[in-house]
Amino acid sequence: MDIFSFIFQVSHDSGLIEGFYVDDAIRTDGVNHLLYADDAIVFCDATEDAVTHLAGALIWFQCVTGLKVNFGENFLFPVGDVDNIDRLAEILSCDWKLLHTDYLGLPLGAAPTASYIWNKVIDKVQIRLAGWKGKRLSMARRVVLCNSVLAAQPNYMFSLFKAPPSVISSIERLLRSFIWSGMGEDKKFHLVSWDKCKLPKQLGGLGITDLGIRNQALLIKWWWRYALERNVWWRQLIAQNFPNPFFPLVRWIS
User: Fold this and answer.
1) Cα–Cα distance list, 150 to 21, 40, 44, 131, 187 (Å)
2) Domain-by-domain residue ranges, the chain?
3) Which residues pair with 41 in a beta bridge?
4) Fewer CB in 10 Å around end: N or C, the chain?
5) For residues 174 and 125, is the Cβ–Cβ distance under 8 A?
6) What is the pLDDT of residues 125-136, one digit of tens each?
7) How far apart are CA 191 and CA 168, in angstroms?
8) CA dist., res. 37 & res. 152, Å (int)
9) pLDDT in tens, 96-108
10) CA gap 69, 59 in Å, rounded
């Protein structure tokens, strides 16, 4: 994908596909595309000229590499009100969608506090549980599966967003039911409070992962990276929009 990046860098430098800038006043370090494996997301102005240049860049990529771009699998996502979105989609020979979609598992265009974006995480836990249905598991095995498999399902989202309390409660309800009832149909009494179950074994608990604390721990890493990774563009973007006093913990870490 080095050729892809080169083509779009040339398009940016020539002012054809500018993308967005970390600092609009200085207009340096512009970003017009992001790549991960064979996925790409391109940022451009909502004008016919910009989208025409985008289509041309993709055709150029086809000619240079011999690869074929499937325009039917591309989508335009307007940001804000774009009156000519149908025309822009026609130029690029693709469809368009409103900006609420997943990119690399990351929900775009949705509020992180919205419970519905966490439904997939809860579904993943339920699917795992369904796969164990009918298996007779001891309490010790259920604790191991709970910590190593079930509690790990939300890790990706936990590392990006603070989960609403209702989401934490929903996942813990599934874990709690699995710990005490296994996959049986009959409900069983919970012999110990869930807070006690989350205590370390040395303190008389079962050592069940505290999802709320794990969520906080995974988010803290961004403070650490912000303090240490001085030259990455995402840090520059945050620093430009929020002055340092907004990040008191960063000064403490560094």
Assistant:
1) 40, 31, 40, 12, 20
2) 2-108, 115-216
3) 34
4) C
5) yes
6) 999 998 887 578
7) 21
8) 24
9) 988 778 888 888 8
10) 8
